[in-house]
Amino acid sequence: RRVIQTPLGRTVHVRWQSPEGKELTTEAVEYTGADLKRFTLKQKQISEWGTAEVRGQKIHFTWHKMENGKEKVETGEEDMREDTVIVEQMIELLRARWETLVKGDDVNVNFVVLSRRESVGFKIFKDKEIDYKGTPAVVMKMKPQNIFIALFVNPLYLTFARDGDHRILEV
What we know:
- By secondary structure, this protein is mainly β.
- The protein has helices at residues 87-96, 98-102, 147-150, and strands at 2-6, 9-17, 23-32, 35-43, 48-55, 58-67, 70-79, 84-85, 107-113, 118-132, 135-144, 156-161, 168-170.
- A seven-stranded antiparallel beta sheet has the order 1-2-3-4-5-6-7, with no helix packed on it.
- The chain is globular, with a radius of gyration of 17 Å.
């Protein structure tokens, strides 16, 4: 993870690698102040890439993929909502809403799924408290709000340290 500060905001670069060190995926996230401006995802292992760009009150999606040796470009747009997030923002969002979550209330987000050219609604809530290798921890459950999407997408469990900075322990 590399962060570049500019007078108007910052850009965050993330590279995901295989255990052998092969680059699989890269992400670049541009912020103006604290607001998301542009998110670019390149999935090198499948030769697909796309962007989500906020312009005014809309978020515009573009996804590129190869079909039969030719590049296919698909687009979409939707209203930009306050609760729209990308992967890079998720952990900080949960830390910011920590008190809400630990008292048992839900946090709803619209998670950007670039390959679908849309955001998908998820509900996040406290699943349980556990001891994680000697550390008091809280397990948060993230599941799709749409019942049809929930048939195909399993819930995601995120384990955080209960105390201190609520560091992520396991996904």
